[in-house]
Amino acid sequence: MKKSSFSIKIALLGLITGLVNGLFGSGGGTVIVPGMFFLLDVEEHKAHATAISIILPLTIVSMFIYFRHGIIVWDITYKVALGGILGGYIGARLLNRIPSHLLRKGFAIFMILAALRMVF
């Protein structure tokens, strides 16, 4: 793959991830992980780990805009964030212990269940 087309893919993947994150309040990982894996040939574990590094700045920008519009429910935010910090630590520790094929299947099942829950 030519370097220029690779850079365009990266930029477009970033743009789409940012749009999904900004529009839906989350979900950037559902775009960036498969995008890195299928479009950029990034190994499964590295795609998941890299997604966190990419999503953090996107989330901060989106949060600032949501804050300016007064649409954040702070009493829920603090409580869920505390549990999320613990869950994030545990998940990050477990990531390298899960084989790639199981990680991919688990992620796919999670996305399917989330999609079904949103539709029904």
TrEMBL record:
<feature type="transmembrane region" description="Helical">
    <location>
        <begin position="49"/>
        <end position="67"/>
    </location>
</feature>
<keyword id="KW-0812">Transmembrane</keyword>
<comment type="similarity">
    <text>Belongs to the 4-toluene sulfonate uptake permease (TSUP) (TC 2.A.102) family.</text>
</comment>
<keyword id="KW-1133">Transmembrane helix</keyword>
<keyword id="KW-0472">Membrane</keyword>
<protein>
    <recommendedName>
        <fullName>Probable membrane transporter protein</fullName>
    </recommendedName>
</protein>
<keyword id="KW-1003">Cell membrane</keyword>
<dbReference type="GO" id="GO:0005886">
    <property type="term" value="C:plasma membrane"/>
</dbReference>
<dbReference type="InterPro" id="IPR051598">
    <property type="entry name" value="TSUP/Inactive_protease-like"/>
</dbReference>
<dbReference type="InterPro" id="IPR002781">
    <property type="entry name" value="TM_pro_TauE-like"/>
</dbReference>
<dbReference type="Pfam" id="PF01925">
    <property type="entry name" value="TauE"/>
</dbReference>
